[in-house]
Amino acid sequence: METRIEGDLLPVVTCKLAKGESVITENGGMSWMDDGIEMKTTTNGGVMKGLGKMLSGESLFMNIYTAEKEGAEIAFASSFPGQILEFNLNNETIIAQKRAFLCSESTVDLAIHFRKKLGAGFFAGEGFIMQKLSGTGKVFLEVDGAVIKKELKEGEKLKIDNGHVVAMTEYVKLDIETVKGMKNIVFGGEGLFVTTVTGPGTVWLQSMPIAKLSSLLYVGTK
Asked: Which of 36, 50, 108, 152 could form a disulfide with 137 if both were Cys (CB 3.0 to 4.6 A apart)?
């Protein structure tokens, strides 16, 4: 599968498929496609797995698009100003924020990933349930705003405002910490908790989570 990412503020990824190749996205994720591509709606693993994807922020049903002719193209556009982040997995696993998945090759497995610590799920902006993308093939994630990549060494910790983590490698640990000092909590504007990630591994951050932008726009209209 050949791919290209185009556009600045609202990017789109176009996939050029060989005959018989397939790409998968959540229900309603396709933007446009050539004639000669067949769509099949499926739970992609059974009803229980589909229900699990619903918990992780995706639709119960997924759409699989398969090329019936050589070189047919299909496109998937972002739904929010930002960037499209590409991974080329080789028997690897990426943990992603629950609404980040855009599309992937059909050889990539999409499953739910539960945070091991309840606190990290209830109070971190990334949620208790995230997405686990594993296997071999290309994956595309939707990023709110700009994407920043951070490499963490063993035991190295990064403190992040809630909602800014978009993806991380499998062995990065995500937790929360309480903001210290009553004055900092009341007047600091960062809330009671802050997300922490600990290496080793790679973390991808997004500069403007849609929830944060929505909150700022709401305040601005009052």
From this structure: 108
